[in-house]
Specification:
alpha/beta; 8 strands
Length: about 260
Amino acid sequence: MDKRISLIAANWKMHKTIGETVSFIETLQKEVGPCTDREVMIAPPYTALDAARKAMTMEGYKLAAQNFHWEEKGAYTGEISGPMLKDLGCDCVILGHSERRHLFGETDEMIQKKLAAAFKFGLLPILCVGEVLEEREAGRTLEVIGTQLERAVQGLSREESGKIVIAYEPVWAIGTGKTATPGQAQEVHLAIRQHIAALFDKEVANRLRILYGGSVKPDNVDALMAQPDIDGLLVGGASLEVSSFKRIVQYQFVEK
């Protein structure tokens, strides 16, 4: 099996101006330096994408958008397309974040279209999946996530499926201060890998990078990243300050 390179991703949501974005990235790079054994991905607001790309001057830093529309162009007021993101220098795009699903009504069908479009337009997709509290308490976590996965990857080739980054984000742990224990997160990550193996094969599943997202903080990052099937993190609130995100990026590396 090829070694999976860790990915530490910052999702800034609706935070930071252009100036704040540039200052953050310049400071982070100065304090962390180039990243060779892990990758750092930053997803600023659309307005700061161009400035963020220009500020990224060191190895190992990737630029992501927080969402996009599956069509190349058209009468979709307020939307942004894959070619527009590529033109701004984006490497990746986050798809199916729980806030997009639950606040803005994105369906599994819409997310499937976006996933296919990401590959069409040359963007690495970070596919978010996860359960709400009621589903976890009912013992339906793996069922819900399995359905989300199956619908999202429908129509993708074996090669494309092996390139996806999946982010498991228990909805009940996002911005609540609650975090899945490392054991709970590992259980779901392993189940995701096994589900992809059943849909495609073990080789595809072993290449797959699976991130954990849900109230990630400097004080729980090492324990999370020590789990064998956790290949990185999707960080929200703790990614807004250089000091906390720097500590997360510099988690204590454990051979897996």
